[in-house]
Specification:
- It comes from Cannabis sativa.
- This is Probable quinone oxidoreductase.
- The chain contains twelve helices and 19 strands.
- The strands form four sheets. Strands 7, 8, 9, 10, 11, 18 and 19 form a seven-stranded mixed β-sheet that branches. A six-stranded parallel β-sheet has the order 14-13-12-15-16-17, with helices on both faces. A four-stranded mixed β-sheet has the order 2-1-4-3.
- Strand 13, helix 6 (251-259) and strand 14 (264-267) form a beta-alpha-beta unit.
- By secondary structure, it is an alpha/beta fold.
- The termini are far apart.
- It has two domains: 77-199 and 369-398, Medium-chain alcohol dehydrogenases, catalytic domain (Quinone Oxidoreductase, Chain A, domain 1, Alpha-Beta Complex), CATH 3.90.180; 212-338, Rossmann fold (3-Layer(aba) Sandwich).
- The protein is 27% helix and 30% strand.
- It has helices at residues 28-32, 35-38, 118-125, 191-211, 228-239, 251-259, 273-280, 298-304, 327-330, 341-344, 348-364, 380-388; strands spanning 3-9, 15-20, 44-54, 61-69, 77-83, 92-98, 106-116, 140-148, 160-164, 174-178, 183-184, 219-222, 243-248, 264-267, 286-291, 305-313, 335-337, 371-376, 395-399.
Length: 400
Amino acid sequence: MGFLKLKLDIIQPNQNLLLPNHSHLVSLSSHLNQSSKLFPNYPTNCYKITSTSSTLGTQKFAVRAVIATQPPSPVEMGKAIRVHELGGPEVLKWEDVEIGEPKEGEIRVKNKAIGLNFIDVYFRKGVYKAATLPFTPGMEACGVVTAVGPGLTGRQVGDLVAYAGVPMGSYSEEQILPADKVVPVPESIDPVIAASVMLKGMTAQFLLRRCFKVEPGQTILVHAAAGGVGSLLCQWGNALGATVIGTVSTKEKAAQAKEDGAHHVILYKEEDFVARVNEITSGNGVHVVYDSVGKDTFEGSLACLKLRGCMVSFGQSSGTPDPLPLSAIAAKSLFLTRPTLMHYNVTRDELLAAAGEVFANISSGVLRVRVNHTYPLSEAPRAHADLEDRRTTGSVVLIP
């Protein structure tokens, strides 16, 4: 009986197998697959026939096969906050996660600082729906590039970059990001500042400069004026030449709003903000209301607007506003919009322009970013609880 002599060239060791021969060429792949049993630590990825030759006898073949193998790659692991069920801050779990390698068009970033935003609370509660459960929350971070995908240009290991918006998942020590969603961070901007201002700063930019373009001499009303976005709206609105009216919940927050450029500050727990706005504007109303509070302020905000004024509802920290009949805005021919940042930064050029204007205003001193609270990333549940209970002012940052 003849034999088919099969030589397997792998990393180590070389092995000759003697396999029964038949009148036809035995299926090579079925025998090569046996190598995974002989050498379990060297998984077979593919097979390549490099040469064949026949020698003495029609039933005797010598076939040389090379098994392309590689040692098992170590799995990149890190820590992240994960949400397995919707609910309160307690559903935020600190867990081990697999990071993975960047694919084409992607980079891996080791986060140095992560911004906390109310939109993270909305996703945690289910007000906004995450694509899957479990998920990693977070939509803002700044970090250092640790790997780039194949063929990628324009980004390299060691670059300091920041991003805001999609994809969600910044509550992680490291993450994979599309390279076209990150922006370079100027050397003059500290990573903690960058992480705290990307989402909030670009939100303020599109609200003031594009959604309703504020002009000198106009009057604007900013709810939650001491919050992360509210603080920037007050500063930027003042710099644009507008008269800024802010609402806050405490005297301490009122003092901050004043420092940030609000010309008039209303303690809404002690005063009727609609009556106060009417008094401040001599009954004329304001050109635009920037309302991130939602249910508790929505109807009052509409009442504060002047003829053809604009209601910009960009958040709902107190809950979703009640349904509104069109007749409610017809009375003064009002404009009502519910914008989101992602719809104003659709293209790469829009993203770079928005981030560039924010960074330029920080560098020039127009914007002073208040990072009043930092928490370890592992303590994200406490940070969420403090944010929801309004125990925070300015920006909140999580540190991995």
